[in-house]
Every structure is written in C-alpha cells, then in structure tokens.
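Tip: read the tokens left to right.
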C-alpha cells in the first residue's frame, strides 16, 4: 500500500516538541546488547523502522527482544544460536554492520550480508574491516557477504584513515571483550559514539576517551546486563530547529543536549534566526524563532563537532529562500545531493559542482509532487514543503519512517497541515 505525506505549507510552526531517542545511537546500542551475557533494558528508544528491523533480526538470531511500555526494549541475548545475517534480514538497514562487531566480539564468528541503507554515494566498510583484522580476525568478502572469524581477538592499535562513525563504533564493539588493550586513533567523536561507549561501560566494559579522537579499550572477560537510556536525537532536534526557522515559526525543542546542537544553533543564528538555550529546572530546551527570510550563509559539513552532514539537506531547503547566495560544501558524502532536483522543482535555484552546491535564494518555494530518495533528503523535503506556498505530496516516505518517530504527529501538534495519505 502506497503512502505519502501531504503538506499544505506556508504556516509557521509554533509550540513545543519533544525529541525522541537518537536513531544513530539506538542502531548501535541494540546490537551491542548481544555482547552482554545477560538481559539488558534499553530506554528512550525511538519508535522507528530501523529499530523494528533490528529487533526482528535479533529475534531471528535466537535472542528474545520485546518492546515494553515507555519506549523501552528488553533484550535477552542468551539464546542466540545463529551467527549469519542474510540480505533479506538486513534489507535497507545500513547500520546492520554493527552486528558484525558485536557477533565477532562475543562469539568469534559472524556472517553478514553487506548492508543497504540510504543511497548517498559510495559507503565502503574498509575501515571496519581493517580494524577487526588488526584485532586478529580473519575476514573474507564473498558474494556480498562478509565472513569474520577469530579464535581469540587481541587488542591492537588501529589507525583509521578516515574519521568514520561506523568503523569507530564497530571496532569498539569487537574490542570490548578482546584480550588486552585496543587503541583507536583518529576515532569519530559524534555523540552516539560516546553513547555506545557509555553503554559498554555500563555493562562492565572499560572504554576511555570516547568523544576525543583517541579511544582506549581495555578488554574484559565478560559483560553483564544493565538498564541504559539512549541520548536524545541530535539530528531530529536539528531538523525541527531548521523547520521552525524555515517557516518563520517559534518552537521550543525539548529533551535535547544543547552541546550536541552547537553547530546547527550557530548556523541558524548566523542566518538571522533567534536561538535561545534554556533550562526549565527539569530539562534543557532550545527555542528557535525564525524570520520572514533568512540571510544567506555558507556551510561545510564535517565530522563532529563540525556541521553534521545529516543536516546538510534540511539546511539547504531552508537556505533556498535566503536573501542572497549560499554555498554548501558536502565533505562527508560526495553524492549527498539527491534532494536538489526536488527542491529545484519547487522553484529553488541551485547549481551543483562536485561537492559544492550554490543556492541562489528565491522569495518562496511552491508545493510540488516530491520524491524522497533517502532519509535526510526526506527530511529536507518536509522542511521545504512546510515553508512552501501550496500543497506538496511527498512520496517514498518509507525512508522518512526509518529515522523519524511520529513525524506527522509531532508536526501537527506544532500547527503544520500534514496528513499521511494511503492509496
Ligand atoms: C554514520 C551515520 C550517518 C551519518 C554519518 C556521518 C549511523 C547509523 N549513520 O554513517 O547518519 O551521515 O555517520 O556522520 O550512525 N568511510 C570509508 N570507509 C569506511 C567507513 C567510512 O571510507 O570503512 C567514509 C565514508 O564513505 C564517508 C566517511 O568515511 O565518506 C564517513 O562515513 P561514516 O562516518 O562511516 O558514516 P556511517 O557510519 O556510514
């Protein structure tokens, strides 16, 4: 059954929205729970398709995974008896690669069909493999399947040639039960890397330095069960911040960690929006107040704490109506520009040259039939449609459902006219 979002735009978003648990942390913490010899309870999990897919995979492997009230999942990995994950199990879930590190670390064997996920350019996993090989794993790649075997993983120094979130987390998962010390050099510093390290430590792991570019892991013999609450989603929060600014709205964004949002706050302020960080005594919040039209600004995506590539696409939708010309340089995924054609159909004026997009601001976008090509492109189209004059129908919303919890419900509560339609 085909579904799409219909959005009647040109209305300011107003009110408050609560951010869900971080997708990119959840998709690593759920597989990481395999490493425990006991049951784990994960809290603040986002209700998104990627998490459902992972739960199904774990169950097919023999674990018991059940959702419990309050966005929690209980995972008992003790029954795992299948160490191969086939393509029909992983489907579009790119982050399924974390099962490789987790299974290898716990059982010394893993077979994983190479992951799908968003089409945003080549996404090699050579650094994951390099790291696991350094720990002593034997890894072969045959017919689209990675097979990893190790009698006993041994700590080692791993230097990553590129800063990779996935490789940093995956090698951390493989190393936590390895013998001796592992040092990850040129590690990614994203908030979800720190969250996974905190989870491993909560299970009895010894991981130090997460959040810096050198992570040291002292292997332990076993990990125990625990309860762990996942951090709020930096990218979901950023998407709502951009949407608030793009619609000239006034939105309070709750359940956030302000330091994770510094890059986006800085860029929104530079574009003329008002961003107020606050603490109501119980929790932090950020209030974003938009203007009629933003000022043009330039953005370069970079690993954390730089401007996140995942917000490049929504930000481009916002800058499409800026006064003046903006330049966005995409340094992480060179082909992450699938949304550009759709924005152009809404009246945006954007020219691409390699990794650079030049956006000539127009007064307003107009609604159009739109097609999401990946998760964050979908988010960009929602931002564009909310600010545009007229009606937009956004198709391929399965991409959006992979990563945004109840997005239509949250936007409706902010006064948006958004409807999930079914053919
Ligand atoms: C993660 C995020 C994704 C985000 C991205 C960058 C998850 C589930 N996804 O993706 O939302 O956009 O980080 O912040 O957390 N690379 C290699 N070899 C490797 C691995 C990566 O060359 O083995 C390159 C990639 O092609 C890319 C860069 O390194 O150019 C960064 O990729 P990486 O940080 O690994 O992204 P993901 O973990 O796939």
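Filled-in amino acids:
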């Amino acid at each position: 059954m085909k579904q799409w979002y219909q959005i009647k735009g040109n209305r300011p978003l107003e009110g408050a929205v609560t951010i869900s648990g971080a997708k990119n942390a959840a998709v690593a913490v759920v597989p990481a729970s395999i490493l425990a010899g006991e049951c784990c309870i994960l809290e603040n999990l986002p209700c998104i398709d990627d998490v459902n897919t992972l739960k199904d995979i774990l169950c097919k492997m023999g674990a018991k995974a059940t959702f419990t009230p309050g966005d929690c999942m209980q995972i008992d990995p003790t029954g795992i008896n299948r160490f191969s994950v086939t393509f029909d199990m992983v489907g579009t879930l790119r982050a399924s690669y974390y099962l490789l590190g987790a299974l290898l670390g716990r059982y010394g064997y893993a077979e994983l069909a190479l992951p799908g996920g968003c089409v945003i350019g080549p996404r090699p996993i050579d650094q994951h493999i390099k790291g696991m090989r350094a720990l002593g794993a034997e890894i072969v790649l045959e017919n689209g399947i990675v097979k990893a075997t190790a009698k006993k993983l041994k700590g080692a120094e791993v230097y990553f040639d590129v800063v990779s979130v996935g490789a940093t987390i995956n090698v951390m998962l493989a190393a936590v039960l390895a013998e001796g010390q592992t040092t990850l050099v040129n590690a990614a510093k994203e908030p979800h890397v720190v969250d996974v390290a905190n989870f491993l430590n909560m299970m009895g792991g010894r991981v130090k330095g997460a959040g810096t570019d050198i992570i040291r892991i002292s292997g332990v013999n076993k990990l125990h069960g625990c309860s762990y609450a996942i951090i709020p989603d930096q990218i979901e929060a950023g998407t709502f911040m951009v949407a608030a600014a793009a619609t000239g709205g006034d939105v309070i964004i709750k359940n956030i960690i302000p330091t994770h949002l510094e890059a986006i706050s800085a860029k929104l302020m530079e574009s003329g929006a008002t961003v107020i960080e606050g603490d109501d005594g119980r929790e932090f919040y950020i209030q974003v107040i938009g203007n009629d039209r933003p000022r043009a600004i330039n953005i370069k995506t970079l690993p954390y704490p730089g401007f996140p590539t995942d917000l490049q696409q929504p930000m481009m939708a916002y800058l499409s109506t800026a006064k003046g010309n903006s330049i966005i340089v995409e340094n992480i995924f060179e082909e992450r520009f699938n949304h550009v054609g759709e924005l152009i159909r809404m009246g945006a004026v954007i020219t691409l040259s390699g990794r650079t997009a030049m956006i000539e601001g127009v007064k307003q976008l107009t609604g159009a039939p739109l097609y999401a090509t990946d998760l964050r492109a979908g988010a960009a189209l929602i931002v564009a449609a909310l600010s545009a004059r007229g009606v937009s129908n956004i198709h391929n919303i399965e991409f959006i459902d992979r990563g945004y919890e109840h997005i239509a419900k949250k936007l409706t509560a902010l006064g948006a006219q958004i409807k999930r339609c079914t053919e």
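The chain has two domains: 3-15+233-422, 25-227. The longest strand covers residues 3-8.
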